[in-house]
Amino acid sequence: MPDGTTPHFGPATIRIDGRAKVTGAARYASDETVENPAWAFLVTSSIARGRILGFRLDEARAVQGVLDILTHENVGGEAEKPKPMAGGDTTETMESDRIWHDGQIIAVVVAESFEAAREAAHKVRPDYEEEAPSASFGSAGVVEEVRKAGEHKDYRVGHAERAFRDAEFRVDQRYGTPTQHHNPIELFTTTCEWRDGKLTVYEPSQFVYGLRGNLAKQLRIAPESIRVVSRYVGGAFGSKGGITARTAWIAVAARRVRRPVKLVSTRDQGFTIVTYRAETRHHIQLGADRNGKLTAFRHEGWEVTSRPSQYNVSGTETTARIYACPNILTKVNIVHADRNTPGFMRAPPEGPYMYPLECAMDELAFALRMDPIELRRINDTQTDPATGLPFSSRSLMECFDKGAARFNWSARNPVPGATRQGDWLVGYGCATAAYAANIGASSARVTLTPDGRARVQIAAHEIGNGAYTVLAITAAEQLGLDVADVAVELGDTNLPAAGLAAGSNHTAAISHAVAKACDGIRERLARAAILANDSPFAGGDPAAITLSGRALNGPGGAQESLARALARTGEGPLEVTAENIPKGLPPDAMEKVRQGQMAMSRGHSRDDVTAYAFGAQFVEVRVHARTREVRVPRALGAFASPRIVNPMAAHSQYMGGMIWGIGAALHEKTEIDPVAARYTNDNIAEYLIPVNADVRSVEVLMVPEKDETVNPLGIKGIGEIGIVGMNAAVANAVFNATGRRVRDLPIRIEDLL
Amino acid sequence: MEITLKVNGTERHLAVDVRTTLLDALREHLDLTGTKKGCDLGQCGACTVLMDGRRVLSCFTLAVAAQGAEVTTIEGLATEDGPLHPMQQAFLEQDAYQCGYCTPGQILSAIACVEEGHARTDDEIREYMSGNLCRCAAYPKIVAAIQQAKPQMERA
């Protein structure tokens, strides 16, 4: 295997699944054909808290084509509550009469057609006993508690309270981030088909084995009797990571009507039947000496969750280790409200928690009359300040320097509100981006066929991350073939297990498994070669034999064609299945993945190093002097990584993350009715995501980095870091343009009047 | 009710509910699943198809109302192993997508954008492509793909 000691950027490769995507041939879950499907339509609650007294169903049943109506009264005992990937518990749906949040699934109508199911669903009349709900922070009836150590922990180094009190320069501010919804363009769909007691589920998923294992528990059947298929996922961003309530009910419906049942939920239902990014609040205290050296860092966060869940993201685990500081104190609180349970959304901890830190650093730089990049340089460190471990690699200042040069940062006027071009106020801002380098356990099967082609089979996930292509590149490189010679099959629990495609770990996890299987093939070919008298490698060292150019190559220029070497291992194809359990994970990690649990080594909880990816982000904003409209004409991100498998798709990942950041800073917010505890802009015309006209120049610099310990292939994840620094970079640029410091996102015209 | 649709040059007979949208007719009755449902509310553009050369939202068009029109879907731009339409080729080469879900709608909208004469500048393309949302945010590369395909389309 190549290693991370030398930075390695692979060849820019057009996606191997690209043709399927541009011709409409790619089959997303709801595109899979099943014979004679019935259609499901969900009925969701119109109150946020209370009980269902009963249903009046006559009108709904009278709709022509209705086959069945599921409610807690007739199917409540047929499935158990789903188990979320994090946070322990979640709300019920049709297991009981209880309403936990607005938009909760309370009935499923099944009919001959989509149109009939929809009509009947609108005619289901529930009677409620309603209670006053609690919507969010500040609502009467919410319950606040200090988050205990468990999935996440706090850091206490030195004496942060005292150091802050004694500091020469202080920033003491509160910040907030809003509720956000993933809104992938693909809706949340599920198709279930029973055949001979076996269930096939077509559902877009970031973890097919997780869906299988957890659905099996809900339905009280063996995981082996379920097959989950998800060949293409139409955007996920965390929303398709954990199992949600709908799946089991569609399986139950299909069993009842003895036909495949297909659900395509509506856009507004997507706001309440799956997870979301909960709103957060922050209290940041930074203390520094007159030279800008940090002396104190305190970060306390508050996060909303549902009544029964402990879900929280605790981004203090990242903010505590960004800058050298001798006194650190972090704390996180969770606030229970009558809401659906939140979950992972792109850079779950780093998005909302790096924003206040990076704004506070900008505020400190301003107070010190110091360039914000210089403040970060003064506080840069190669040692994790929270634990004392070395970073596996940290090229943060290299990213700042390369990015600043390219962005022309030196043209920035440090005086806020002083740069005007025509009707536009111009400002520059920057921020640090960081994301833990995670890697999960994974297995894979690779088959080499006599015609010189290879097949890679793995239950990995194509969610736009370019997984098909990454694996074709990896296998081609390891086996000495061309990318075009490799076929890749993904997204099916009939294939060897792979873990959750989240936490920016997937490329690292699946590439290592495939590389290991390829190395198994190399080893088998090499061992056969050294034992054969007719081979140029006879009696040699198998470890010295490598695969390249469709041939085995050894010391002294010895060479033999792949076809000839393969023929020696027996008739037909050579198949090797391998597992990769990353350092630090228990030996049963792979079995856990097969059972549908997460098994991931996290960059901030290793015992040898702290492994993070770093980047620097720059933004130019223009604020209209009269209307206060904010535009982003330019953004630039410089990101360090030891290895980039496919620079073409990687560029898109970084760029897409940055545009997400522009959206998060300026557009996105799910509005909540404080009385009804209801999302009011639950569609993608009123939930504002960036459109083409919102985006102009977005530049990405990939900075090569040396790293000998992150993992053998030197892969740091790239899917999420792009968003991390953008919120603060935009907010800091708005301050530079206007002198107005907006601490609650998103920044809108009304904040700048 | 029984209707006849002309899709990608072929007449197709099907029985639909009067409420069935062109989008659902294509996907669920004709197995042309390249056209995607992203909102069913005319907000996202994923279901864009061409009707008599004009881009329309198939979720906002009833199947019965599409009778008599020439409907072109993403499947109608290239044969299975044949050469791609210049716009499809440009999307491939510019990596103008990630998950690929909005891509069929983007490509059909992009073709119409060029044919309408609304692709004269990057700014004009951005404006006239803003009805097609891309949550992976491939926008700058979609603009680049249209700029790449435009001269080839104009020559053809």
UniProtKB/TrEMBL annotation, chain A:
User: Which terms are listed as keywords in the entry?
Assistant: Molybdenum, Oxidoreductase
A Gene Ontology molecular-function term?
Answer: oxidoreductase activity
Give the originating organism: Roseomonas indoligenes
Q: Which SUPFAM superfamilies match?
A: CO dehydrogenase molybdoprotein N-domain-like, Molybdenum cofactor-binding domain
The record's listing under InterPro entries reads: Ald_Oxase/Xan_DH_a/b (IPR000674), Ald_Oxase/Xan_DH_a/b_sf (IPR036856), Ald_Oxase/xanthine_DH-like (IPR016208), AldOxase/xan_DH_MoCoBD1 (IPR008274), AldOxase/xan_DH_MoCoBD2 (IPR046867), AldOxase/xan_DH_Mopterin-bd_sf (IPR037165)
- Supply the name of the protein: Xanthine dehydrogenase family protein molybdopterin-binding subunit
**Highest lineage ranks of the organism?**
Bacteria, Pseudomonadati, Pseudomonadota, Alphaproteobacteria, Acetobacterales
Domain of life, per lineage: Bacteria
Limits of the Aldehyde oxidase/xanthine dehydrogenase a/b hammerhead domain: 23-132
UniProtKB/TrEMBL annotation, chain B:
Q: Which Pfam families match?
A: Fer2, Fer2_2
InterPro entries tied to this protein: 2Fe-2S-bd, 2Fe-2S-bd_dom_sf, 2Fe-2S_ferredoxin-like_sf, 2Fe-2S_ferredoxin-type, 2Fe2S_fd_BS, Aldehyde_Oxdr_Iron-Sulfur, Beta-grasp_dom_sf
Domain (2Fe-2S ferredoxin-type): give its ranges: 1-77
GO function terms (MF aspect): 2 iron, 2 sulfur cluster binding; metal ion binding; oxidoreductase activity, acting on the aldehyde or oxo group of donors
Which keywords does this chain's UniProt record carry? 2Fe-2S, Iron, Iron-sulfur, Metal-binding, Oxidoreductase
Entry protein name: (2Fe-2S)-binding protein
> Which organism was this protein described from?
Roseomonas indoligenes
Which lineage ranks, top first, belong to the organism behind this chain?
Answer: Bacteria, Pseudomonadati, Pseudomonadota, Alphaproteobacteria, Acetobacterales
